[in-house]
Amino acid sequence: MTWFAEIDTAIRDFVAWASALDPWLCVLAVLIVLSLETSLFVGLLVPGEAALLLAVGVLGARWALPLFGVAVLANLIGQTGGYWLGRTLGPGLRRTWAGRKIGERRWAAAEAIVHGSGGRALITTRFVAVVHAVVPAVVGTLRMPFRRFLLLAAVGAALWAAVLTTAAVALGEAARVVGYGWMALLLTCVGGGGAGVVLFRAARRRRTS
């Protein structure tokens, strides 16, 4: 399979190129990307998980701890911005141009989660795409005490960063053993399967509603 070997070679070349960069530049890039990813509006577009996985995979296990710390810090920066925006503007935030761009469905989903689980939503929704960027603003509009918000957000950020960095180290080491091409194929299959399940469930909900 020539194409498969080409994919493996291309990934190895990229890893070799990225590994030659100053590691602290990669750490800074992760800080910036994750701060944006957890912010209210940019968080709908920026792939934070991919940035952290890629950085740990390229830099290796010895950089896992610094990247873990940076991931926690970046999460707190982005979520704190959303919290204060929500606390300052209140429910009127949803009626702003940017609030309308987020969409009523996302606001409603975030509010339902917060009302259903309280402050725990700051922990559990960190693992949920898109919604995690909206929840801090919703919590801010409800005027949760800042200290409580910061504690819960820190717990959620630490759990999320621990899971992602551990997975990235494991995947990076496995890729070096079995080959980057095989690992890319595995991740593509897993991602495609997950997307298929989500689409299937969404289609079923439409048929039953």
Automatic annotation (TrEMBL):
Similarity comment: family membership: Belongs to the DedA family.
TM stretches of this protein: 14-34, 149-171, 177-200
Keyword Transmembrane assigned: yes
Database matches in InterPro entries: DedA-like (IPR032818), VTT_dom (IPR032816)
Membrane topology term: Multi-pass membrane protein
Name listed for the protein in its UniProt record: VTT domain-containing protein
Compartments in which it is found: Cell membrane
Annotated ranges, domain VTT: 47-167
Key words, A-Z: Cell membrane, Membrane, Transmembrane, Transmembrane helix
Principal subcellular localization: membrane
Any single Pfam family the record assigns to this protein: VTT_dom
